[in-house]
Structures are given as structure tokens and as C-alpha cells.
Amino acid sequence: MLIRQATLLDGAVVDIRVGDTIEQVAASLPPHPGEYVLDAASGTVIPGLHDHHLHVYSAAAEMDSIRVGPAEVSDEAGLGRALTAAPAGSDGWVRAVGYHEAVAGPLDRQLLDRWVPDVPVRVQHRSGALWTVNSPGLAALGLGGHPDGILRSADETWSAALERRRPAAVAEFSARLAGYGVTGVTDATPDLAPADRPTGLRQRVHCLAPGKRILHDDGLDLDGLTEWIADRHRGDAPVAVHCVTAAQLVVTIAALRAAGRHPADRIEHAAMVPADSVGDLVGLGVTVVTQPNFVAERGDQYRTDVPAAEQEQLWRLGSLLAAGVPVALSTDAPFGSADPWAAMRAAVHRRTPDGAVLNPAERITGRRALTLFLGSAENPTCARRIAPGQPGDLCVLTASPQRVVEELDADLVAATVVGGAVVFQR
Q1: Distance (Å, rounded) from C-alpha 90 to C-alpha 116?
Q2: How far is Cα 282 from Cα 115, in angstroms, rounded to an integer?
Q3: Cα-flanking dihedrals φ and ψ of residue 420, to 5°?
Q4: SS3 of 303, please?
């Protein structure tokens, strides 16, 4: 296909011939006979966005789940009403997501049974790490004797089977991503077997499993983590370690030092980074894949839950980049909004839902935020370019480069191209 009158981020206006890769870029290119021509009308054309950390099946399932976070449910009575009124899905389950203890404190099977005693219910914590399941749900899983119904998502002995039972609206989720200009995703679901990897997406898909590991503060094992990393490295394979607390990050840094580094090693999230760990990350050369959108989505809860003296550690970005840490951005959908443009705006403004600015020193420019979504799956921190030989994955926008980086708005996306084929057009 041929894209005409495309304005690049540097202001140059060019025509682009694109197939699976970009074939030609020139001031003017005549169309080939029968070639599809897309007129960009001087709008900006950029490499397609790559979301470097999300969960395809969970995000697809979330689209028809009820949300029970603090923004939707204010107290225990409201949670009970929401679960009671929710219809069961095609698999017979009521599925709720986004729960936080600020709504009604810790959940257990007995509390869920009070509201819904006869239909399987599962409620996912907004961290994604835990599910709480009622008695009918536990019975359906063969766990009728479980004491409290609190199950870890990373335990594939039950979670894999449970998620397989619900038809995932993968195609619908993929269409939503295409509307954002997303042409590639990295699925961070742990323990995702090759046969279970998501297919049928419009985007190119890369999976971190089996090189992804989730850590929990109550089970940190430096020796075990070091050996796992070393074993991966012996096979010339990188690791991606989920770190949302300072303790998890410190242990991961120590394990990476002991095991040695691989150039593609990653730390996922880095939600809390103590100041003295920044230099450690620089020394390791490890890539941090982080999600500033959580400042915009959960910032007020952080200001309540995290001690004031530790809040400067939250979702660092500007300080990591200034120190020389390789960084890429992602949304962590469905645990965060799947809109990468909202994540970019959060990186620029750092505003919480109530309008407070959380860690203003961590703000970055709109242009820098955009480039942190332009890396590839294999090299997330190196922004792709509009040049011959680059992947034929493009995002066409309706506005000038200046307006694009000022507004960072998904509504500006006019078309999305993957491998030279239009997968979304407004």
C-alpha cells in the first residue's frame, strides 16, 4: 500500500510505500497499478505503538466483567449489591475485577457466600495477584475444602483451568487496541504454554513466558531466584521479573548481580524504586518496563496507603531516564487502562484522579513519552523509525506532530497499519 502526504515527527512530508516492511520513503511516490492508496492529508505518521506489558486473555475477559474498585463501589453494601445484580457469564461464573481493600476490607469465601451463595463468583484484586472465590466456585474448581477462598493468580493448578473455561473476547480486545494505534503487544502472562498463546489478534504478539516470574514478599528466595535466572541465561534466554515492592526489587537486583546479566533482561513494573537502587539498575543495564498510568488511575489511593516519606519511590520515570536506565512503557491491561495515550499523558502530567501531582520530578515530555511506546518486542527501548527496512506497522494520525505530542489523544488516530494492511480506519 501507499501512504501519501505523511508528516513525520521531524516535520518532513513524505510518501511511504509499505508491505510487511517499509519499502520506500520519498518526497513523492507514484502509485502502482491497483495499489491501495491512503491519503494522510499531512497528518502525522509514526511507527505503530507497541504495548510492552499486558495480559491478552485477562484483558479480553475483563471487557465483560463487572468492575468493583473504589471508583465504582464505595463500601461493603455497594459491593454486595453489585455482585448480587451481576449476571453470570456464558461459563456460569460471575466475574468481578479491580477490587481493592479500600472498598470493604479483605474478602474471603464466607463474605462472598453471604451475597451470592448459589452461583460461582470470583473477584480479582486490582493487583492481579489474587482471586477470592465463593463456595460454589471453589466446588467447581475441586477446592471445596479450601479454608478462605483466597487464591493466587500465579498458581496455574487452578487459574489456567479457570481462565480456559471462559471464552475470551480476544478479537474484540484486539480491535480496541487497533483503534489506539497499537500494532504490537508483549503478553506478560506467566506460565503461558506455547499451545495456549493468544492467536487471532490484529497485532503482532510476543510472549514473555516462560521467562516471566512473579515475586511475592512473603516468599522471596534469593538463592532460588538466582538459580532460575542463571539457568535461563545458560540457555541464552533473558528473564522478566515482576517487582512491585521495594523488597522485590532489591532481591531481584541481588539475584541479577549474582547470576550475571543478559542484554534483554527486564524488570516489570518497578512500582517502588528506592533512591539507592537507581544506580544499581544503571550498573546492571537491565530494562525497566513501567506503567505511569497507575499514577492517574490510583494515585490518590497511593497517597493514602504509602507513607509520605516513601511516595517519591512511586512509579519513577524521569529520574530513571536521567540516570541512564533503559525504560519502556506499557499499560498492564487489564489491571490498567489499555489506552497507551492515557499512559503517555500520565507520564507527562503525573496527576492523580483528584488532581494532585504525584512526584512532579518524574514528569517527562510528551515526545519522550510517545517514543517509549515505539520500541519493538525484541528491543523495547529503541524507538523504531519511518525508514526502509523497518516493520510495516504504522499509526496514521489526523494532526500535526506538535499537536500529537501536546494532546496525546487516541481520538487523533485515523488508521492503523500492520504489515502493510489496514487493520483500523476511522
Answers
A1: 17
A2: 50
A3: 80, 10
A4: helix
Residue 318, sorted as left (phi over 0), alpha (psi -120 to 50) or beta, turns out to be alpha
The x, y and z cell numbers of residue 309, run together, are 516519606
pLDDT in tens, 6-53: 999 999 999 999 999 999 999 999 999 999 999 999 999 999 999 999
Burial 223-257 (b: 16+ CB within 10 A, else e): eebbebbeebbeeeebbbbbbbbbebbbbbbebbe
User: Would you give the end-to-end CA distance of the chain in angstroms?
Assistant: 17
- H-helix segments, 69-188: 76-85, 101-104, 109-115, 135-140, 159-164, 170-179
Question: DSSP code of 44?
Answer: B
Tell me the three cell numbers of residue 242.
515482576
User: Which pTM does this prediction carry?
Assistant: 0.90
In degrees, to the nearest 5, what angle opens at C-alpha 360 toward C-alphas 310 and 273? Answer: 35
pLDDT in tens, 214-245: 998 989 999 999 999 999 999 999 999 999 99
Query: Identity (one letter) of the amino acid at 222?
Result: L
What dihedral angle (degrees, nearest 10) is formed by the CA atoms of 169, 424, 209, 139? -10
For residue 349, which phi and psi values (nearest 5 degrees)?
-100, -30
Q: How far is CA 22 from CA 2, 3, 84, 308, in A?
A: 10, 11, 53, 49
Q: Phi, psi (5° rounding) for residue 175?
A: -65, -40
